[in-house]
């Protein structure tokens, strides 16, 4: 072989072909319930029966498959919801003591939107455009709500696997976020193995910027950010393009937008690809206290997103796991009043 031929061979071996962008969920790895031939009755017959649920599991799973969401009425105890919000108020009032991360979507924070809560003034923390990030790390009751039996039982059936709590967000006011689908921003190791819970920490008012959603939108073709279905630093299209695409496609498909007006303790569970967002806050005096949690399956989320090279430390509740924050282990469960609930 000539020198030129040898060099060409080395180049062929060392230069990888370009990675083809992901433009749709991989069908073989979809959760079983998302496949065309999913037999819900047959699936549940093979599982150990679950009793004492405040909802009909078969009915809810059928509704989920058709619509991409379910509502669990009065799924979380009032005492738990109230304890969680007391802890949030303590976090805000004594923010200088804490390291919990908060995202501030205000012009003054554009360069550094995510900061420790101790570095953000109390008047900002008490206002809109704030997301308290992963407070469940700090709170026993936050973990108990995130991995509540009523939530875990349903999602473990959807995934046919152990449920893993990935992350959480706490809101005092409505998010006013444009239409989106979570999988574009919250990425599991198997992207279709993703679901979320929206826990109402107070009754939701129509003027408080309630969540809205498009039933059935989880079956639409995915939006391409120019480099695939995930939004990142290489994307050539942005969240506004994403929102415009979803609103237009939902309208073309005849999907009706619904507004979530639920009561304190109710839970909305939704599919990774359900199009949803936060409506306009028409009365700025109204709060919309809520706790949002994202979930995956054990086979699809094996490592903490902040330290993917290490085996995570797990906390187990109701047969589901949540990982200890590897960067703030000293902040774990510092709000521990939930131990007695």
Automatic annotation (TrEMBL):
Its cofactor is Fe(2+). Keywords: Dioxygenase, Oxidoreductase. Signal peptide: none annotated. It comes from Spirosoma sordidisoli. It holds the Pfam family PhyH. GO terms for molecular function: 2-oxoglutarate-dependent dioxygenase activity; iron ion binding. This is Phytanoyl-CoA dioxygenase.
């Amino acid at each position: 072989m000539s020198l030129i031929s040898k060099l060409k061979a080395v180049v062929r071996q060392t230069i990888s072909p370009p990675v083809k962008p992901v433009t749709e969920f991989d069908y073989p790895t979809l959760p079983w319930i998302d496949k065309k031939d999913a037999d819900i009755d047959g699936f549940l017959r093979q599982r150990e029966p679950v009793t004492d649920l405040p909802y009909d599991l078969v009915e809810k799973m059928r509704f989920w498959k058709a619509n991409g969401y379910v509502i669990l009425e009065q799924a979380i105890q009032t005492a738990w919801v109230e304890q969680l919000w007391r802890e949030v108020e303590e976090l805000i009032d004594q923010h200088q003591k804490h390291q919990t991360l908060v995202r501030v979507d205000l012009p003054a924070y554009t360069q550094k939107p995510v900061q420790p809560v101790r570095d953000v003034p109390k008047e900002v923390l008490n206002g809109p455009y704030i997301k308290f990030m992963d407070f469940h790390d700090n709170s026993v009751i936050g973990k108990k709500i995130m991995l509540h039996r009523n939530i875990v039982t349903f999602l473990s059936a959807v995934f046919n696997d152990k449920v893993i709590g990935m992350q959480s967000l706490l809101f005092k006011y409505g998010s006013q976020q444009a239409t989106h689908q979570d999988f574009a921003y919250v990425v599991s190791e198997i992207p279709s193995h993703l679901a979320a819970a929206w826990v109402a920490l107070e009754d939701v008012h129509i003027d408080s910027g309630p969540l809205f959603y498009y039933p059935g939108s989880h079956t639409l073709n995915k939006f391409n950010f120019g480099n695939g279905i995930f939004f990142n630093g290489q994307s050539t299209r942005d969240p506004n393009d994403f929102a415009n695409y979803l609103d237009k496609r939902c309208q073309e498909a005849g999907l009706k937008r619904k507004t979530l007006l639920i009561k304190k303790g109710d839970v909305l569970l939704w599919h990774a690809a359900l199009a949803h967002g936060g409506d306009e806050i028409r009365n700025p005096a109204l709060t919309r206290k809520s706790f949002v949690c994202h979930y995956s399956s054990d086979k699809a989320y094996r490592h903490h997103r902040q330290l993917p090279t290490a085996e995570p430390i797990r906390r187990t509740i109701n047969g589901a796991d949540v990982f200890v924050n590897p960067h703030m282990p000293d902040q774990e469960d510092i709000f521990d009043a939930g131990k007695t609930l």
